[in-house]
Amino acid sequence: MNLTLKVWRQENAQARGRLETYEAREISEHMSFLEMLDVVNEDLIKQGLEPIHFDHDCREGICGMCSLVINGIPHGKEKATTTCQLHMRHFKDGETITIEPFRAKAFPVIKDLVVDRSAFDRIMAAGGFTSINVGGAPDANAIPIPKADADKAMDAAACIGCGACVAACKNASAMLFVGAKVSQFALLPQGRVEREKRVRAMVAQMDKERFGACTNQYECEAVCPKEISVEMIARMNREYFRAAVKPQASAKAVGA
Ligand code: SF4
Ligand code: FES
Prior knowledge:
The protein has about 260 residues and is an alpha+beta fold. It has two domains: about 110 residues, Roll (Ubiquitin-like (UB roll)); about 130 residues, Fumarate Reductase Iron-sulfur Protein, Chain B, domain 2 (Orthogonal Bundle), CATH 1.10.1060. It has eleven helices and seven strands. It has a five-stranded mixed β-sheet with strand order 2-1-5-3-4.
């Protein structure tokens, strides 16, 4: 198929960006969206032009590096699908596709479609870990955990940190991401030891990074490629409230 692409080009965070038009020719319906962009870039390089910069790594839907707002929707309109797993069979010959970066103040554009999502790394560094010795796999298996809790923790841990939830939200809220990361620990006994310290630190860092607040629009859940539920946001709020009503006791318990 032949397609027309309107692609956001921007030199750096300070430069003014603009949409530029490119033709994508002889695209197979079996290609992924990123493979289609590879074809366009090969053409641009052959012509001595600057290729379109975009993020990717695994191309298997697991690393969270790919992004792109495709026709106004982060990761495109297919449900539970990352950009790298989106295939060209979902588009029609002759179609015009608009491709933009994830837009949020906390995700400044580095170049073209590549944005800086290191704010998520700083939130994780603030508390998204256990600092106690939890032993090895045999020790974890020796701790009885209700199946329902283990399943929910696994659902939370499915978050790949892509940032689509932020890009979809009119407030650029990161609460679905932070909710998932808080929940994956709060649901397990190994994570409960530092639960109050963790949620306080992660929420404080989230606010410092200038992400907005949740106003229950649910756009985040709608675009999430891993179908993370807004239930995670509710759990994070409960964890935060719990930490707020007994701050001193919890700080002593974790040696803070
Ligand atoms: S919650 Fe979903 S959309 Fe947000 S970072 Fe995690 S995987 Fe991406
Ligand atoms: S490139 Fe890894 S999830 Fe898309």
